[in-house]
Amino acid sequence: MNAIFETIMASRLLALILKETREILRNKYLLFLLLVPPTIQLLILGGALDPQVHSLSLATVDHAQTKQSRDLVAGLMGSGVFLRNTYLSNEQILSRQLEKGQLNVGLVIPPDFTNDLNRGKSANVQVLMDGADAYTAGIAGNYVLRTIHEFQPDTAAQKRSGANQLQTEASQSRPHQLTLIAPRIDILYNPGQISSWFFVPGILGACLTLTGTLVASATVLRERESGTMEQLLMTPASAWEILVAKIIPLLMFLMGDVCLAIVAAQIVFGLPFRGNLALFLIASALYAFVGIGLGMMLGSICRSQRQAQLASFFINIPLILLSGTVVPLDTMPVILQTLSLADPLRYYTLIARGVILKGETLVMLWQQLLLLALSAVLVIAVSVNRFCKQLV
Amino acid sequence: MNIILVQAIKEWQEFQRDRLSLALAFLLPLFSLLLFGYGIRLESKNIPIIIKDLDNTSISREFVQRLYATNIFIPAVTADSTSPQDAIGRGLAKAALVIPKNFAAQIFRGKTSPVQVMIDGTDIANTQIVYNTIQAANLYFLGMLQKQSKPDVTLQMVVPHLRLWFNPGRQETFFIVPGAFGVILWMFPALLAAVAASREKEQKTIIRVYAADPNPVGFLLGKTLVYFTVAKCMAIIVMVAGALLFGLRLAGDPTPLLVATPLYVLTAVLFGIFLGTYASSQTVAVQATSTIGFFPCLLLSGFVYPISNIPFPLSLFSVVVPARYFVELTRDAFVRGAGWPAVWPIPLILLGFCCVLLAGSWFGMRRMQVKD
Amino acid sequence: MENVFVMRLRELGLVEPQPVPFPHIRTRQPTAGSLYNLEGSTDIAMQQSDIAIKAQNLTKNFKDFCAVDNAVLEIKYGEIYGLLGANGAGKTTTIKMLCGLMAPTTGTISLAGQSKDLRSRDIRKRIGYMSQKFTLYDGLTVAENLQFYAAIYEIPLKLRQQQIDWVTQVCELEDILKSVVGRLPLGWKQRIAFGAAVMHEPDIIFLDEPTAGVDPLARRQLWTLIREFALNKAAILVTTHYLDEAEYCNRLAFMADSKIVTQGSPREIKNQLLGQLIEVKASNAQEAYLALTSHLDHWRVSVFGDSIHVLIEDSENGLESIKSILLNSACEIQSIRPIACSLEDAFIDLVQRSQRERS
Question: Which residues of C touch A23 (CB under 8 A)?
């Protein structure tokens, strides 16, 4: 046992690791950038991103100005899709506001709205929507149509007796008719629909990528540019020892990031953690490997820091976009979805969301984990290869 | 003036020499445009759903048909024996619907029949869509039933006539691509400028710069000039490409766009220079640019998710993201077409950003000089 | 001048520290045995041959120019071999090829008796290398740097501290052990880098401009150390700009324009100078120079500070002709005497000669 301990203590690898760690610790800026931005980004973006459609603005031109018309508007305002409603005096103003993009939806109620309803005829209303944002327009439109469809005004017809037997019967049965099928909605895993719960696992991965590639490429290039790489090459240390010694401290720091971020998210967003911590940590470590490996590869291929950093963007943007962290995957064209299969961040996000929110286990996630491990191995192998090639 | 030109020429030569950076500076934006323009679609279709029809009558089957007819759902691929909850847990389905045994019977008896719906809440964007679709299908179905039994009476009292302004075809690209312009024309100019501004620090020749020029304005403006020109070219290329590929057309008066675009890329370049001035090395400069520039610009500018959704106090962050203003302007220029009345404050705001950043960079350089 | 400087410093009490003997940690038996004076470690036997570094027809061509042209070298154990030349002459490229960092375009190299695989771990363990560029880690303290190099060269744990102590003593690092290297002035860094490069008692030491930026006292000290290592049978290849240091070397090679112009001991090289050097001191050096060069071959006349060295073939006639040239000019002769050739004279002459041969 002693012999093993001694061998480790005396080993070149340990010396290299110590050196790398000390270099990072001494570099206050680097340390700050390694530990702080991921957590802060996570908190800000986790809190800010929300794809749901709510807080829209509505404006109404109400020519009827009766209780029914006001009820209609109240019905629309009820569910929180609209944040506020403004009453405008005429359609011109409405149009202008819509043109300027100050409104999402405009409602125009004609003067004979109530009269029509009282006579048992259907009343027409105009709904004008800002279609610039097709997605929001789609959802808001559906909501508005549905709400108006369901709208049941108190009409005078119900009070008149005998005028039209069919009508009264119909009007009496209407409210009831509409509730014949009652969907009982059960939202699983995130009943409060807290959007941060959805984004945080993914953004964590994205931050790991950005930080990992940048810092890893910088450590390789800095050594090369300062001439100490040459010195290292003249020592008995082998190329893989040099590389591993660079990877391990970075890995430790990134894992620290992960833990810090998760704890912060738990405190700030109440993010649950329903699954196996070990599984999550293993996946995070694998993914950190990928990020670091990519960075090292860039550090070996590129000739200067500038090239490496621009190149890292080249890799990071598609990596993040095709992973499903920020924008949905299932709506992309097929070719992009196929490319997404090669994206390690995609698997990490699936695992992270699965473990954190759904409590998924290894049994359910082993495929993703395997693919993640494979990509980590691949990236590290390529980066080692490139690293060795650049020497002499 | 001379100093600026001399510095600019030197900077241009350095930039030209780096073939890879050049390619990346022009190819990367185009590449991103393609990725964003073709890849980002928020509107879900083909949501996998498990429907368990325990009633299996013609009515229930019609109901199921109605659900699929919305073109939002597709049947999930799972083995029959899996419970709906399990299927959602495994990610095989995003929603589940269970039609109870006495569905048809209850309806005919005029009694309410509950239908159990489970939605995977982890996927926030989808949840609303699933919820809305099921409700809408439900109403439509009931309306159909009503027509069959009592054709003269309509359930619907108020009939809405919907008009979609500006984008009647509901093309998502009209929303995404102008936003992409804003993001691309911020990130890449800023990055190039940050790298350039910190290069002397990296090469340790910064002392020479301080010694040569007691007033660093020339140094700063020289670099700004070069990257501003590069960014303007980038802007033209990217916008023309965007128009061609995605069918974007100028709606209304083009002058706001022509005025605001140079101001915007200038802001981006100055931002990069500002960060580069304060950074102690190139790595730091780029890290800072990507942290402060990339993510917020991508996600807090209204590019994908609306700004109105951001809760206070985080919404305050969005105020200092110049991209947010430019994106508003591009969306107006390419989709709404209201022109100056709608967007007149924006070039002024951008100008304000430029001044602040320039002043900040100048102070940064002076501070360094005094320090040394 | 330098001697005067050193004397003055000594008078002021700034004595260079007593040379501290190097704690030898390696056995040098030619038979197979452990490399270190410790049980348990095994290593290959040290080569019987005395030749440590050998290069034949060493050439390096880059895309558009030739950096090293057909160099031939042989350096024995225990020898200090100096490689001199102007910047860009090819010194650093030669060193890099010799230690295996750069592959030659053509030619053969043998290092410690091995000609294949110059980058094997065994060879690297026995090489000490100090490059021209800075080789310490700016972010680490002095102590941490030394600990790192001690560990990476596999100095056994028990012996590490004594080696580090040796470097500390010799380079007078006691007060700055905890300082971060990045903040130290260049002179200190060079000394520490040297210490780090030789801590593991290498057999072959490559030093690329080890005294650049170092003060005269420290330079002497460094050379004392280098000599000690040579005495202990290490082969040392040094490049330098300082011609006075070249006197310390056993053998020298001058490089100019990627070729080795001459090789040999300092005496042999000085003897190559054809002719006799005359030192002329005049009231107006500039005028004197102009006058002399208008009558004699340009390459015979060089300015040294405020005196002029003239190379003449024939002592007596030459002296007379110089005197007459100067008398005819506006200069007053302050002194005129023959002097011994210094290495610098030899160097300039050789370089000029090769340039003339080329054109």
Answer: 137, 139-140
